[in-house]
Design goal:
With 406 residues, the protein is of the alpha/beta class. Helix content is 30%, strand content 22%. It has 11 helices and 19 strands. The strands form 4 sheets. Strands 1, 2, 10, 11, 12, 13 and 19 form a 7-stranded mixed sheet that branches. β7 and β8 form a beta hairpin. α1 runs parallel beside α11, α3 runs antiparallel to α6 and α8 packs antiparallel against α9. The radius of gyration is 22 Å and the shape is globular.
C-alpha cells in the first residue's frame, strides 16, 4: 500500500491542472497520484486524427484568452507560439440565413420587415417593462428576449440540446446570457453593426498543428509516474481513504461524476438521494467530409427537424482540415450513427431546479470525508476548460497555503 497526500480521480483538465499546480507549489511526485480509467488523458477534450486532420471527439472546445493566469500556466506545456488566435465567428441558422451570434445583437442582418417584428417583440419583453422575473425556464426566456426570439431560436434550440421538459430546468444559471437592452438592439438595426455585450469566447486559441486534446496529452505525459492510465476505481474505504486497497490518500480530489460513487462505497441515504437528483446529457459527435461554405467556426441549428444542435467547421480553425462535425443529444441520433461517430456519456451537467441544493449536500458530505469536488463533474457545473483550470489552480493554492500555515 502506498500513501499519498492527494489522490486525484480523473485526468481531464481539472485533474491535470490541480496535479501540476500542486507539484509546482513544492510537493513531490510521491505526494500525488492521478487515476484515469481511460487509456488517454483529456476527458471531453480528447482529439483524434480523422480524415487527415484533428477532430475533437468530445465536441467543440477552445481556449479562451480571458484569464492571463490560465494562459501562463498552460503555455508551460504547449508554448504560446504553438497556438493560432481567432476572433470568434459563430452563427445561427435562422430564416434561411446564417446570422451572427448573439441573435439580438445582429438582427440588422435580417430583412427590414423581419427586424421590425423582432424589435416589436423585444420591446414587449418582461425585462424591458420591469416585470417580475419568472421562475420557469420557458417563461424566463420569453421575459428576457421576447416572444419571437424565444419561439424561433432559444426554446427550440434548448429543446434539442437538453431533450427534456424545459421547465424542469432552473433559471439560476441564465445570468450567463448577455444582457438585452432594447436601446442597443434598436441601435444595432439602425447602424447596421452589433451593439452591447458579446458572449464568451470572443477571442480564442486553437493549436496550430494539433487538436485541442494535444494540450492535455502533453500535460498527462509530464506527470510521469504520478499518472495511472487505464485504471478504474473499484472501491473506496471512506474511513481510511484507501482506494482499490492499494493507494491511501490523506485527501481525495474528485473530478469524476458523483453517480459512479455508488459503485465504490456505501453511501448515506441522503447522499444517494442527492446524487439521484443530478442529471446529465450525452452528446454524440459525428464527422462529415463535406466542407461547408461559411466563415463561421461553429453554427447553431435550432431547426428541430435536424438531429444536431451545432456544427463545428473545423476547416476554419484546424490547420489543413476539411469537412465538419456535428454535435447532437444522443437521444436524437439513435439508429442513425455514421461510421465516424463518438459517444460522450457524460457531456453536459443539467441545471435542474433542485441541482444547487443537491450539489451542496454532496460537497458538504464529501469534505467531512476528506474528499473535494472539482471541475465540471466534481461540482456538476457546466464550465469551459479555462474555468476548470482556473478553479484547479485556486484549489491547489488554497491547499498548499493551508499546509504552510500549519
Amino acid at each position: 500500500m502506498k500513501k499519498y497526500k492527494y489522490l486525484i480521480l480523473g485526468a481531464g483538465p481539472s485533474g491535470l491542472a490541480v496535479a501540476h499546480r500542486l507539484l509546482q507549489s513544492g510537493l513531490s511526485t510521491s505526494d500525488i497520484l492521478v487515476i484515469e480509467k481511460n487509456a488517454e488523458t483529456g476527458g471531453l477534450c480528447k482529439s483524434q486524427i480523422v480524415d487527415g486532420a484533428p477532430l475533437d471527439t468530445g465536441g467543440g472546445h477552445f481556449l479562451d484568452v480571458k484569464y492571463e493566469r490560465v494562459l501562463e500556466f498552460l503555455f508551460r506545456f504547449m508554448p504560446k507560439e504553438e497556438w493560432n488566435k481567432f476572433d470568434r465567428i459563430s452563427k445561427i441558422r435562422i430564416h434561411g440565413q446564417e446570422i451572427d451570434h448573439p441573435l439580438e445583437a445582429n438582427l440588422w442582418q435580417l430583412p427590414k420587415d423581419t427586424q421590425v417584428e423582432y424589435l416589436e417583440s423585444i420591446a414587449k419583453a418582461g425585462c424591458v417593462s420591469d416585470e417580475p422575473i419568472p421562475d420557469s425556464f420557458s417563461d424566463w426566456i420569453v421575459w428576457k428576449l421576447g416572444n419571437k426570439i424565444a419561439a424561433e431560436y432559444m426554446l427550440p434550440y434548448n429543446k434539442k440540446i437538453w431533450s427534456m421538459d424545459l421547465d424542469k430546468l432552473g433559471v439560476y444559471w441564465l445570468h450567463k446570457l448577455p444582457n438585452v437592452s432594447f436601446r442597443e438592439v434598436l441601435e444595432s438595426c439602425l447602424y447596421g453593426k452589433p451593439q452591447g455585450q458579446l458572449p464568451a469566447h470572443g477571442t480564442f486559441l486553437y493549436p496550430k498543428n494539433h487538436g485541442y486534446g494535444e494540450l492535455w496529452r502533453l500535460m498527462g505525459s509530464a506527470l510521469g509516474d504520478s499518472l495511472l492510465l487505464s485504471t478504474e476505481v473499484i472501491n473506496i474505504d471512506l474511513s481510511t481513504g484507501l482506494v482499490n486497497g492499494q493507494w491511501q490518500a490523506e485527501t481525495i480530489i474528485n473530478t469524476i461524476p458523483w453517480a459512479h460513487w455508488e459503485n465504490y462505497c456505501s453511501l448515506p441515504e441522503n447522499i444517494t438521494t442527492a446524487i439521484s437528483k443530478l442529471k446529465n446529457i450525452s452528446i454524440d459527435v459525428e464527422y462529415n467530409s463535406n466542407t461547408l461554405t461559411s466563415d463561421a467556426h461553429w453554427i447553431y441549428e435550432p431547426d428541430e427537424n435536424k438531429s444536431y444542435h451545432r456544427q463545428l467547421l473545423r476547416s476554419n480553425f484546424a490547420t489543413g482540415a476539411r469537412g465538419h462535425w456535428t454535435e447532437s443529444n444522443s437521444s436524437r441520433t439513435s439508429g442513425s450513427k455514421s461510421e465516424t461517430h463518438f459517444h460522450n456519456e457524460y457531456a453536459y451537467p443539467v441545471n435542474t431546479k433542485d441541482k444547487p441544493e443537491a450539489v451542496a449536500v454532496i460537497l458538504e458530505w464529501a469534505l467531512e470525508n476528506r474528499i473535494i469536488g472539482l471541475g465540471r463533474w466534481g461540482k456538476w457545473e457546466h464550465m469551459n476548460s479555462d474555468i476548470a483550470v482556473l478553479e484547479a489552480l485556486q484549489l491547489a493554492d488554497s491547499l498548499t497555503s493551508s499546509e504552510a500555515s500549519i
